[in-house]
Amino acid sequence: MLANQQGLTKQTDTESFTGCKLALIFEDKIVVYLRDDIASIPFANQWDFPGGGREGNESAQECVLRELDEEFAIALPIERLIYKQRGINQTANGDSYFFVAYITQTELDAINFGSEGQYWQLMTIADYLTHPDGIAPLQQRLQLFLATK
Hints:
Blueprint: E1 19-26, E2 29-34, E3 47-48, E4 51-53, H1 60-72, E5 81-88, E6 95-102, H2 105-109, E7 119-124, H3 125-130, H4 136-147
């Protein structure tokens, strides 16, 4: 299902943006990680999705897939991104993108969690949407995606 924008597999992005996040879904669960408990970082000690800041002139798709590889050692092809939504970046000036992709059990088993964050886990989508330590803007963006299904 391709939602909200055409050209999801486009390799270049001429629009300005500051970062991206990815809802990585397995069955009725989502891959989340607990951010570090450091007062100086945004959303400290809250449940986050893979993603991060843009580097150079990379496209939004390239940005989110690079971040996924850096944080979880998962190299998804761009065609696996099924949803793209533009919004306001909550941690930097400018806009950001929110993506959705599905993951397989084999890919889950191969996760090698990086050095950012305390640990990762699978959380049911329903639990994430109501979790008091879920990041509210990501909860909202995930709800918008679910409304398209």
